[in-house]
Automatic annotation (TrEMBL):
<keyword id="KW-0560">Oxidoreductase</keyword>
<dbReference type="InterPro" id="IPR031717">
    <property type="entry name" value="ODO-1/KGD_C"/>
</dbReference>
<keyword id="KW-0809">Transit peptide</keyword>
<dbReference type="InterPro" id="IPR029061">
    <property type="entry name" value="THDP-binding"/>
</dbReference>
<dbReference type="GO" id="GO:0006099">
    <property type="term" value="P:tricarboxylic acid cycle"/>
</dbReference>
<comment type="similarity">
    <text>Belongs to the alpha-ketoglutarate dehydrogenase family.</text>
</comment>
<keyword id="KW-0816">Tricarboxylic acid cycle</keyword>
<dbReference type="GO" id="GO:0045252">
    <property type="term" value="C:oxoglutarate dehydrogenase complex"/>
</dbReference>
<dbReference type="Pfam" id="PF16078">
    <property type="entry name" value="2-oxogl_dehyd_N"/>
</dbReference>
<dbReference type="Pfam" id="PF16870">
    <property type="entry name" value="OxoGdeHyase_C"/>
</dbReference>
<dbReference type="GO" id="GO:0030976">
    <property type="term" value="F:thiamine pyrophosphate binding"/>
</dbReference>
<dbReference type="GO" id="GO:0004591">
    <property type="term" value="F:oxoglutarate dehydrogenase (succinyl-transferring) activity"/>
</dbReference>
<keyword id="KW-0786">Thiamine pyrophosphate</keyword>
<dbReference type="InterPro" id="IPR042179">
    <property type="entry name" value="KGD_C_sf"/>
</dbReference>
<comment type="function">
    <text>The 2-oxoglutarate dehydrogenase complex catalyzes the overall conversion of 2-oxoglutarate to succinyl-CoA and CO(2). It contains multiple copies of three enzymatic components: 2-oxoglutarate dehydrogenase (E1), dihydrolipoamide succinyltransferase (E2) and lipoamide dehydrogenase (E3).</text>
</comment>
<dbReference type="InterPro" id="IPR001017">
    <property type="entry name" value="DH_E1"/>
</dbReference>
<feature type="domain" description="Transketolase-like pyrimidine-binding">
    <location>
        <begin position="646"/>
        <end position="856"/>
    </location>
</feature>
């Protein structure tokens, strides 16, 4: 409010300035908004105090910059206690801005204290300007079809944009208004001192209601709003030179000709063309050029299928002969092994020059048809690039750009989940540019049935992003908006939304008939001129180019398409055309195909482990750790020093710490991972007397790689996608996402199904992402028991019908789509995490862990297990010759995975059973065919083979393991005709029992079944 006055007096001054007694004042984004409760002057009762703030600031610098009556008002307001009505007592003489004549005092303030009409008019015009800033977009001509938004004639104009609302008539239009604070200040700085009301309205119409409309008043930052106004309220918002128009025309010609060429050569193919929104392509190129000028080196793009081929061709620069060869049915790259994907789902990375002479690295993320699922992937990849470039403090070198359909942007929840990362400390990527390719229809659904808001972009107001609506047929306005968005992002490092409103020439695809459901819309579309025709007519009419010039250029572009089409028959694609990220100096699957890879060196010397152990069990001297945590950390250090009794969390910390000292960047994220959902990890210590934190794994050595662990937002879909994107950037990043409970990972099922399980087969895209999923039945009910092990195993790509040949056994990991493990010892956890990095390829790792085993005495390891052994696919019973008989005397073998081992162990002990042995399968996929065969052969006298799980029959690993166990048995010496017996819970629709008592009863029942009771 008014500067130089105390906060309380500021508020009272504002109230006195604007209201009579009985009015109420409410704080808002732009100052004080008033609600009249007893006032005859409704105009004053709705005045926004932001403009008075502006006038007061201007008056402080130069008293002559405001109307003379306001000069008198501000002078008088300095006298505390003067009533608002008295504050308007004018000086002895006032000079009329219109005639220069002196105005008697009683003409400024009447006997009743009414306001001078000059001030009143000024305030009204201020409010009118404000109305255009707030609501001008509702009148803007942003729809080329002229059926929606401001062009929808069935909807009345906002009353604030009408003359009548302010009491103006036609006679007032030629009244001259002195410009100043709140009334087109940029016009004043460019020489205009006064304008007629008619001219002011015309200027406002041009600035806020032309072929673009802008929403920004919802942004709470005054500085950001002022920044936008400075660039919007310019007498000539944009003016392009002949060369700049030539560039716009050239880019538009390529974009439109590409669609026309494809429709000519492949009329019956689906291509999800961009007709009706081709202006987006030159817009994106403008955005990239401007951003590169401002420091960006990498741009990561994400988009759905519509317009993807055009973007690949004209923005990312995928060779056109490659695109045409895909239409002609040419094979995938020779080195490609897998299913491949349709052409409008593929990604690519490429380095290309920009108009500034600088080069930019462009990466288009491959993605499935699950709309918006690529959004968090793009942001994760962008963040990882920033990390790799040491740019996380400035957010200058990398930028994410997302293209959305209008129906998807408004309806897909992951859009909001992704936007929620905007300002999170370990997720922010310095602002994302969102481009809505708004064709005003879903598949066959009208917008009024697809969203509850006027615009698809309204959700973006939740993150205070500016929203630019622009008519797809005005390519110069579109260029201006894309430039403005680039400058905004570079200045404030926050998101910006560009809503490009156009149409869809064909149906959902080129073979669809849209008139079945949208007859009136498609009657309009059939009469629409193409954006290239609209622009060429404009250029010819203004004399910028001749028709001959334009036609010759179009023919030249078409000729290049024809040449590419001819070359397509013999074109041989390369892997770079498919990869979202090209891991330089890292062997490709083809290069590894003929190699027998060495054993992964996952062991670490004990001296090194003890060094790490001291650090992860200590804290600074001036740091007050919670008293209970002191005991936990002290015991952690003792277990390592003694070399025995090492628990689960300590094993994990040793793995991550050792990898960090070897130069691998570690990132662990998820809900509550810093402490750990089960209070087990304690990776970040909190000072009990301050807000200070300390992360031991960040203090291993001066040469260690970065270790990041961060709590995430409560979004599994968004966060899992983000971490997947992060993992794509470098094979030297170990990225782990952990679910709060394994059950909750199911809201990220799209990322699991479409990216993790099939990403390499479809797109050649490799990832080493680790999903850490708590799993295990402890009587906590159906929502806190299962990580849905069966779902991951169902997607495993290894054939259960055939025992692998020796060659295939060597390649089990190279050929699998992902790994699924359920380890039961801290040492095995240690080795599986280290194995992720110490190999020549990358595969996602689905890591189940038991809540019970975090502290169970059976889940302890010796230090020698970390330094002398590697990961064990299976773990045989260690009690032979101790509490149970030898292998030769064993009659029953129970095969299982995970924590059910502890219940079986306890039951066997209580029964005094000496002839039953246990075999733990630690890795389920790839399946341990050879290891199980050899283990079974080491038991010469088995009479019963049981597979036990705690999950219901229709869940868990039984359905996956049963056919594979049958295949293994056929390869054994003595058990070819054996059948494996199942012991577990009965089939169920719910994951687990809801009561502890029922849980215990079910467990006791299947334990008895195991031991034949």
């Amino acid at each position: 409010m008014l500067r130089g006055i105390s906060r309380f007096s500021q508020q009272s001054v504002a109230k006195r300035a604007l209201y009579r007694s009985g009015n109420q004042c409410v704080r808002g984004n732009w100052g004080t908004r008033c609600l009249a409760t007893n006032s005859s002057d409704n105009f004053l009762s709705t005045t926004n105090a932001a403009y008075i703030d502006e006038m007061y600031e201007a008056w402080q610098k130069d008293p002559t910059s405001v109307h003379v009556s306001w000069n008198a008002y501000f002078k008088n307001m300095g006298n505390a206690g003067i009533p608002a009505s008295s504050a308007f007592v004018a000086p002895p003489t006032l000079v009329s801005h219109h005639t220069g004549a002196q105005i008697p005092q009683d003409m400024v303030m009447g006997a009743s204290g009414t306001m001078d009409q000059g001030i009143l008019t000024h305030l009204k015009v201020q409010l009118l300007c404000r109305a255009y800033q707030v609501r001008g977009h509702q009148k803007a001509h942003i729809d080329p079809l002229q059926i929606s938004f401001g062009d929808d004639k069935s909807k009345p104009l906002p009353k604030e944009l009408t003359l009548e609302h302010y009491g103006f008539t036609e006679r007032d239009l030629d009244r001259e208004i002195t410009l100043g604070p709140g009334i087109l200040p940029r016009f004043t700085r460019e020489g205009k001192k006064a304008m007629t009301l008619r001219e002011i309205i015309a200027a406002l119409e041009k600035l806020y209601c032309s072929s673009y409309g802008i929403e920004y008043i919802h942004i709470p930052s005054r500085a950001q709003c002022d920044w936008l106004r400075e660039r919007i309220e310019i007498p000539q918002p944009y003016h392009y030179t002949i060369d700049q128009k030539r560039q716009i025309l050239d880019r538009l010609t390529w974009a439109t000709s590409f669609e026309t060429f494809l429709s000519t050569k492949f009329p019956n193919d689906k291509r999800f063309g961009l007709e009706g929104l081709e202006g987006v392509v030159p817009g994106i190129k403008t955005l990239i050029d401007k951003s590169v000028e401002l420091g960006v080196e990498d741009v990561v793009l994400g988009m759905a299928h519509r317009g993807r081929l055009n973007v690949l061709s004209n923005v990312v620069r995928k060779p056109n002969e490659s695109i045409f060869s895909e239409f002609q049915g040419s094979a995938a790259p020779e080195e490609y092994e897998g299913s491949g994907d349709v052409k409008y789902h593929l990604g690519m990375n490429y380095q290309r020059p920009t108009t500034s002479g600088k080069y930019v690295n462009l990466s288009l993320v491959a993605n499935p048809s699950h709309l918006e699922s690529q959004d968090p992937v793009v942001l994760g990849r962008t963040r990882a690039i920033m990390f790799a470039k040491n740019d996380l403090d400035k957010y200058q070198k990398a930028m994410g750009v997302l293209l959305h359909g209008d129906a998807a942007f408004a309806a897909q929840g992951v859009v909001y989940e992704t936007m929620g990362f905007s300002h999170l400390p370990d997720y922010s990527s310095g602002g994302t540019i969102h481009i809505i390719t708004n064709n005003q229809i879903g598949f066959t659904t009208d917008p009024r049935f697809a969203r509850s808001t006027p615009y698809p972009s309204d959700i973006a107001k939740a993150i205070d992003a500016p929203i630019f609506h622009v008519n797809a047929n005005d390519v110069e306005a579109l260029t201006f908006i894309f430039n403005l968005a680039a400058e905004w992002r570079a200045t404030f490092h926050t998101d910006a939304i560009i809503d490009v409103v156009g149409w869809r020439k064909h149906g959902h695809n080129e073979t669809d008939q849209p008139s079945f459901t949208q007859p009136l819309m498609y009657q309009k579309i059939s009469k629409q001129k193409s954006v290239i025709d609209v622009y060429t007519e404009k250029l010819i009419s203004e004399g910028s180019f001749t028709k001959k010039d334009i036609d010759e250029h179009k023919q030249w572009v078409w000729g290049l398409f024809e040449k590419a089409f001819e070359k397509a028959k013999d074109y041989e694609p390369t892997s770079r055309e498919w990869l979202t990220a090209d891991w330089a100096n890292f062997k490709s699957p083809k290069e590894l195909a003929t190699e027998i890879l060495p054993h992964e060196p996952t062991v670490v010397q004990q001296e090194k482990l003890k060094e790490i152990g001291k650090i992860i069990s200590s804290w600074p001297e001036d740091f007050e750790v919670h008293r209970n945590l002191k005991r936990i950390l002290t015991n952690r250090g003792k277990s390592i020093e003694k070399g025995e009794g090492i628990d689960w969390s300590t094993g994990e910390a040793l793995a991550l710490g050792s990898l960090a000292t070897e130069g691998y960047h570690i990132r662990v994220s998820g809900e509550d991972v810093e402490r750990g959902t089960f209070s087990q990890r304690h990776a970040v210590l909190h000072d009990q007397k301050s807000e200070r934190t300390y992360t031991p794994l960040q203090h291993l050595s001066d040469k260690q790689a970065n270790f990041t662990i961060c709590n995430s937002s409560l979004s599994e879909y968004g966060c899992m996608g983000f971490e997947y994107g992060y993992s794509l950037t470098s094979p030297d990043f170990l990225v782990m996402w952990e679910a709060q409970f394994g059950d909750f990972a199911n809201t990220g099922q799209v990322i699991i199904d479409q990216f993790l399980a099939g990403g390499e087969a479809k797109w050649k895209q490799r990832s080493g992402l680790v999903l850490s999923l708590p799993h295990g039945y402890d009587g906590q009910g159906p929502e806190h028991s299962s990580g849905r092990l069966e779902r991951f195993l169902q997607m495993a790509n290894e054939d259960p019908r055939y025992f692998p040949s020796e060659e295939k056994l060597q390649r089990q990991h190279q050929d699998c789509n992902f790994q699924v493990v359920y380890p039961t010892t801290p040492a095995n956890l240690f080795h599986i995490l280290r194995r992720q990095q110490h190999r020549q390829f990358r595969k996602p790792l689905i890591l189940f862990f038991s809540k019970q085993l975090l502290r169970h005495p059976l889940a302890r390891s010796k230090l020698s297990d970390f330094s002398d052994n590697g990961f064990q696919w299976i773990i045989e019973d260690v009690e032979h010759g101790k509490s149970i008989a030898s292998k030769e005397e064993t009659k029953r073998l129970v095969i299982m995975s995970g924590q059910v081992y502890t219940a079986l162990h306890k039951k066997r002990e209580s029964l005094g059973d000496k002839n039953t042995a246990f075999l733990k399968v630690e890795q389920l996929h790839p399946f341990p065919f050879a290891q199980l065969r050899d283990s079974l052969n080491s038991y010469p006298n088995l009479e019963d083979i049981v597979f036990c799980q705690e999950e219901p029959l229709n869940m868990g690993s039984w359905a996956y393991a049963a056919p594979r166990l049958g295949t293994v048995l056929k390869e054994t010496d003595k058990y070819k005709d054996f059948e494996v017996r199942f012991a577990g819970r009965n089939p169920s629709g719910a994951v687990a029992a809801g009561s502890k008592a029922l849980h215990a009863a079910e467990e006791e029942a299947f334990l008895k079944e195991v031991f034949g009771q």
